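Hey team,

Filing this mostly as a record. A colleague (T.K.) asked me to run one chain through the structure pipeline before their review meeting, and I want the input and output archived in the tracker in case anyone asks later how it was produced. No errors, nothing strange. Just documentation.

Input sequence:
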Amino acid sequence: MHQEAGQSAQVVREQLKTNATRMRALGARLREMQPRAVVTVGRGSSDHAATFAQYLIETRQGVMTSSAAPSVSSLYHATPDMQGVVCLAISQSGKSPDLLTAIEGAKAAGAFVIALVNDDASPLAKLADEVIPLGAGPEISVAATKSYIASLSAIVHLVAEWSQDQALMANLAGLPDGLADAWTADWSAAAGVLQPAQNLFVIGRGVGFGVAQEMALKFKETCGLHAEAFSAAEVRHGPMALVGPGFPILALSQNDQSRAGVDELVSEFIERGAQVLLAGGSQAAQVQASVRHLPAQDADPVLEPILYAQSFYRMVNALALSRGFDPDRPPHLNKVTETV
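Output structure:
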């Protein structure tokens, strides 16, 4: 896991070069199509990448985007009308049976299928109308790392070309260097707080929420640590009742419209005695008593959560080892999940 996560910067560097022409053409095709909606399909880390895609597509393109429930096709054999809809399928292996059934159903219902997949010879790639290779290379650890980062960078690339956002394209070109720097960021303060923990919340909002979901999953699968991801808005609707003295919180705060709300929430957590770990956030939030600030780079707000994920992977690998777990071989899990 440590070795593969450390390859993310080079993976993204090569991906951006390899996919440049393909993405340009696909962006033009999407502008011509003017899809009425986007439906995403993915499981686990891939579904968390889809959450990131939803926020990015809806805020940059104004196209309604939602996550499909693969069971609708694989279990209930129902096929919603998908004429004029883009189906964005995200997968590392491209082999999970329920995902393939969902894509077959989407195509039969009229969807235009774009596959973001690491194995471009997989059954998913063969089903898709367009394939965007993630280019992460072999990923042996069960816990996805570089393939998740590669999914996020490919999503940004696709949306930047679709929206013809030249500023985002220019900033995306600097992502590989940003990832290399993020890999060296010292998040050991988080490992110190979380080594004895049993439960925690991971908080994000907007484009940061999908990364919060990914972090919560990694805590569970690699560290045996019960973690739940919540939107900075949603956590006030019930889950806040669990937060008290010593309760650990990992909060992500990219520099966009969501920052003020996350800062306010951090103050509420501190008032309740929580142990707050903060990536990003305003200067005022960072220096509050009881806040442990995790070093994070300033970047395009769309890219900042991706950099948080890269720093997190190094920390969570070390945390797993300190808690006596093998992060490469989580119990009861396989690389390809054979859900039907």
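Quick notes for T.K.: The chain has 15 helices and ten strands. The mean pLDDT is 93.
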